[in-house]
């Protein structure tokens, strides 16, 4: 198992920028995806129940994607708060360093592997 070392300021800035970039991407996705959540109207030109079922399914998928984005946005906000409090990069449960490789894979991680596994 690889030894986990503390990150330097440059690495924290890099990860903070990745978090901010992802937040901007989520905002763009929200702007594009908002139409799919509107009330499904009955289209008299469409053919029968299947068209309405497709529209309802598309609406449900759009709502699920919006919920996923909201959850990711909360995780990003929590990670940015940990950066501001100088607690970023450490497990929120045990205080161990999380490791740069893990944080590069997912900069929102709050917990080490041991605490995640329980």
UniProtKB/TrEMBL annotation:
PANTHER family: GENERAL STRESS PROTEIN 16O (PTHR33823:SF4), RNA POLYMERASE-BINDING TRANSCRIPTION FACTOR DKSA-RELATED (PTHR33823)
Annotated source species: Salibaculum griseiflavum
Superkingdom field: Bacteria
A single GO molecular function term of this UniProt record: zinc ion binding
Keyword terms of this UniProt record: Metal-binding, Zinc, Zinc-finger
Matching Pfam families: zf-dskA_traR (PF01258)
Chain intervals annotated as zinc finger (dksA C4-type): 91-115
Residue ranges annotated for the Zinc finger DksA/TraR C4-type domain, each copy included: 88-115
Record-given protein name: Molecular chaperone DnaK
InterPro entries: Znf_DskA_TraR
């Amino acid at each position: 198992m690889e030894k986990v070392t503390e990150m330097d300021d440059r690495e924290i800035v890099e990860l903070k920028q990745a978090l901010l970039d992802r937040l901007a991407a989520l905002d763009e996705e929200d702007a594009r995806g908002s139409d799919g959540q509107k009330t499904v109207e009955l289209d008299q030109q469409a053919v029968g129940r299947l068209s309405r079922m497709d529209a309802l399914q598309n609406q449900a998928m759009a709502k699920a994607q919006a919920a996923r984005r909201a959850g990711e946005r909360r995780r990003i906000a929590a990670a940015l708060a940990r950066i501001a409090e100088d607690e970023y990069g450490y497990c929120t449960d045990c205080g161990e360093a999380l490791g740069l490789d893990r944080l590069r894979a997912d900069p929102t991680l709050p917990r080490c592997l041991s605490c995640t596994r329980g």
